[in-house]
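2024-03-11 09:14:02 INFO queue: dequeued item ATP phosphoribosyltransferase, len=107
2024-03-11 09:14:02 INFO validating residues
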Amino acid sequence: MATIGSAAPRFKLVFRVPPASLAFVKSAIFSAGAGRYPGPGNYTECCWTTMGTGQFRPGDAANPHIGKVGELEEVPEARVETLCVGEDVVEKAVEALKRSRGMKYTE
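2024-03-11 09:14:37 INFO prediction written
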């Protein structure tokens, strides 16, 4: 694990997720090593989460999972920001994020 004086690069991972999937997705990225604060205290699972509303209008060529072509859709979303220390951690966290998109969430 990196320490405060470490030369390991730091990355900020930012993503949006439906509120019902929030705990599942955060668990996936934390298991991959994201959210560990380098330094004294051994802090883990650190992130900043804000709730908001996303919007989009599917175009003519779209096959939307939510909403209808040509109609404005608004959906609740959680925006998550977390720290990844080291290229290996950010790569694993991004892969975990991608894998979690295709899995079923429990509410």
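2024-03-11 09:14:37 INFO annotate: The mean pLDDT is 90.
2024-03-11 09:14:38 INFO item closed
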